[in-house]
Design brief:
The protein is mainly alpha-helical. The protein is 80% helix and 1% strand. The chain contains 24 helices and 3 strands. It has a 3-stranded antiparallel beta sheet. Helix 2 packs antiparallel against helix 5. The mean pLDDT is 84.
Length: 504
């Protein structure tokens, strides 16, 4: 078995994951800059951050069928072009609409890359390496997230509009990805299933695992083709015999996002500022979040083919529920203190003068705080207070918040992060895989958009306590779902997984 060749082409394809992660996290450093430049409300900010997911939905729903028709490789090359255009366009945007369009274009690239890269890798990987190699895509996603946090930290103090540099620098890895993709072969499974080009596929399979591996793989692919009378349809995907597969796929796609991971990645500095941190400290803590994600993704890659998919999901979702409960407790125990020092931190002189009336008072909840502050300010001032000034008054166990967020990210990185995409690349029959991955990916993006769109509004209006409590409840439900429905696919060929689930 030629591991080095297989790993090399998997790493190149997984660079799409790097761009996906970078694109997802880089916006966190630009939030304050774009809010100020484009004069955004909470809803406009939420949409400008989350609209990338609308593009991802379009990428999700079209990438699978297009990759079935034109091949995995060509669609990945197209995603690289979309990432490049989006990065440059968003960096040079001069109005809100233009900025949103640029973000949506990048989203289409995300939607394509997040689905097709793991499919390609699963189709070229030997069964014993498949979990680890597919997880390379997740590793690159978290590497992209970490690099974005570092990039934001070093670019934040540039003179002028530093957010433009933060967003535009993504064009560099996008161009590298585009050029590198020309070095990888077409998927051998796709070549046989869609074009019947067995000889070309065999050459790639021999390079990957030798002649015996190539012969066995081709035999299994052709056996699968013989069992399928026609190309799969949406009706086939939602048929009764696919019920267990559909439940597992939609369940994992739902819980991966509804537990709040993209809210953490998109708004990490904002969360730490809510916990009373300075801008510099918040950006540094975001870097620690990215590094934690990266380290524990390595742990997942090591364990996924040894411990298995389901055990990792059980451990991870349990730890996520604990971590989110810790964050809820930390914010619930916070107090808001008005004294000479905290009032002096207010940047708006009119708000500072109005809030002098509260000097000497403390409040034990955000609701109580708002009830006392709102009568003293007009609507615009109250909105500014909630968005920018509230952090000056909070007294909280910031260490507990940081530990909770790091535990949550670590738990996600060993479970729902990599395992969902690994399992989606494994559980669908070949004749409906393109359609199925697109539909489930679209649903995953829809849930992600909902979380991202509402998060700024939740922080401002519900407060961090209720926001994190909602996510904790969802993490508990995700654990119960895994225990009841998810099956183990470790060590099985794609054809064996299909037979197991269809028979169930």
């Amino acid at each position: 078995m030629n591991k080095s060749y297989t790993i090399s082409i998997s790493l190149i394809v997984a660079m799409g994951g790097f761009l996906l992660g970078f694109d997802s996290a880089v916006i966190s450093g630009a939030v304050n800059g774009i809010r100020t430049y484009f004069e955004m409300s909470d809803w406009e900010l939420g949409f400008s951050v989350g609209c990338v997911i609308f593009g991802a939905m379009a990428g999700n729903i079209t990438a699978g069928p297009l990759s079935d028709k034109f091949g995995r490789k060509k669609i990945l090359i197209l995603t690289a072009l979309l990432f490049t255009v989006s990065a440059l366009w968003s960096a040079f945007a001069t109005n809100y609409i233009s900025f949103v369009i640029a973000r949506i274009i990048g989203g289409v690239g995300i939607g394509g890359a997040i689905l097709i890269a793991p499919i390609y890798i699963a189709e070229i990987a030997p069964p014993k390496l498949r979990g680890s190699l597919v997880s390379l895509n997740q590793l690159n996603i978290v590497l992209g997230i970490s690099v974005a946090y570092f990039s934001n930290y070093f670019l934040k103090d540039l003179d002028g509009e530093s957010w433009r540099w933060m967003l535009g620098v993504e064009a560099i890895p996008a161009i590298i990805y585009f050029l590198s993709l020309f070095l990888v072969p077409r998927s051998p499974r796709w070549l046989i299933q869609k074009l019947g080009k067995v000889e070309i596929a065999e050459k790639t399979l021999v390079k990957i695992g030798g002649e015996e591996f190539a012969e066995k793989t081709i035999s299994e692919i052709q056996r699968g083709i013989d069992k399928k009378e026609a190309k799969g349809t949406y009706a086939d995907f939602f048929s009764k015999r696919m019920r267990i597969i559909v439940i597992i796929a939609f369940g994992l796609a739902f819980f991966q996002q509804i537990t709040g991971i993209n809210a953490i990645f998109y708004y990490a500095p904002t969360i730490f500022e809510q916990a009373g941190g300075s801008t510099d400290a918040s950006f540094l803590q975001a870097i620690v979040v990215g590094l934690t994600n990266l380290v524990f993704t390595f742990v997942a890659i090591y364990l996924i083919d040894k411990l298995g998919r389901k055990p990792l999901l059980i451990i991870g979702t349990s730890a996520m529920a604990i971590a989110l409960s810790m964050a809820t407790l930390a914010f619930n125990n916070a107090t808001y203190n008005f004294n000479e020092t905290t009032i002096e931190k207010i940047s708006n002189p009119e708000i500072k003068t109005a809030l002098n009336e509260l000097k000497g008072l403390s409040f034990v909840s955000q609701n109580e705080l708002f009830e006392n502050v709102q009568p003293l300010l007009n609507e615009a001032q109250f909105t500014e207070f909630k968005q920018n000034e509230i952090k000056s008054f909070i007294s909280i166990n910031a260490t507990l918040v940081l530990i909770a967020i790091l535990l949550y990210v670590a738990a996600f990185a060993i479970s729902l992060g990599p395992v969902m995409w690994t399992m989606l690349s494994e559980i669908f029959p070949g004749n409906v895989k393109g359609i199925a991955i697109s539909v489930v990916g679209f649903f995953n993006s829809l849930v992600s958009y909902t979380v991202t769109q509402f998060f700024p509004w939740e922080l401002t209006n519900l407060g961090p306590t209720i926001t994190f409590a909602i996510y904790a409840g969802m993490a508990i439900l995700s654990l119960l779902f895994v225990l009841k429905y998810v099956i183990e696919t470790k060590g099985k060929t794609l054809e064996e997984v299909e037979e197991l689930l269809i028979r169930s």
